[in-house]
Amino acid sequence: MHPTAKITVLVLLSASAFAATAAQAATYRHTDLYNYRVVDIAGSDHLNLRSLPSTRGHVLAQIPFDQRGLAATGEEQNGWIELRFWDVRGRAITGWAYGRYLEKDRAGERTTYAVTGLSRYEGLEVRRAEGYGHRVGTLGWNATGIESRGDCTTTACPIRFYDRSGSLRGWVARDNLKVEASAPPQSVDEAAGYEAPSPSGSYWDDARQRRQERRERWRAFWRRVWTSDRHAGY
In 3-state terms, what secondary structure has residue 27? Predict the structure, then answer.
């Protein structure tokens, strides 16, 4: 082979090897590192993606309450995790989100919700269709294990719920749902490093607590009577 031809072949082989290495580097974050999902945030809220691992950082994007597939870069600082988020325009935005509201996103795992934002004397209506259609049932104020059946709209989410009496399928208010975490979240008192005060064993303290609960129950009852709103709607 002519010497010039040999040099040309070597240059082409080197360029091919460099291109293959660059292609692997461009995709490693999707194959080697974890993805994350947002948890424990109400549907009326969002998770901020910031420019710095601190609340002093500028807000780069607002991540939806049920977002999945947030690609991790592998960087973590003081409980903050650096992520890449694709917004509705398809733009890739890299920033920091607080790890308290993130959990590793496992392939094939269903999204489940818990009811939030209601008092113990209220319930969450399940409607046959999105909006104020026919009511097919009610979820308790502390219901958990509510399965997602698809993407939420700006006001409602399609769900399926199983209990001893059977199953419910329909739509519920997005504002009163939050994505369940696999492990129970750490309480504010535990995070601060001290114990929450224990319930008092005093008879008079217990009596005051019972009176307060009765007042709350009556307020909820008369609120439903005067507003003709039996359950939380959307």
Answer: helix
pLDDT tens sequence for the chain (234 residues): 555 544 444 444 454 544 444 333 333 334 446 799 999 999 999 999 999 999 999 999 999 999 999 999 999 999 999 999 998 888 899 999 999 999 999 888 899 999 999 998 899 999 998 877 788 999 999 999 999 999 999 999 999 998 777 788 999 999 999 999 986 555 444 333 333 344 445 566 667 777 776 777 677 666 655 654 444 433
* Continuous segment of H or E residues that includes residue 31: helix 3-31
Q: Cβ distance 124 to 113 under 8 Å?
A: no
pTM (predicted TM-score)? 0.65
Which amino acid makes up residue 225? V
Following CA atoms 81, 85, 91, 93 in sequence, which dihedral angle do they give, to the nearest 10 degrees?
-10
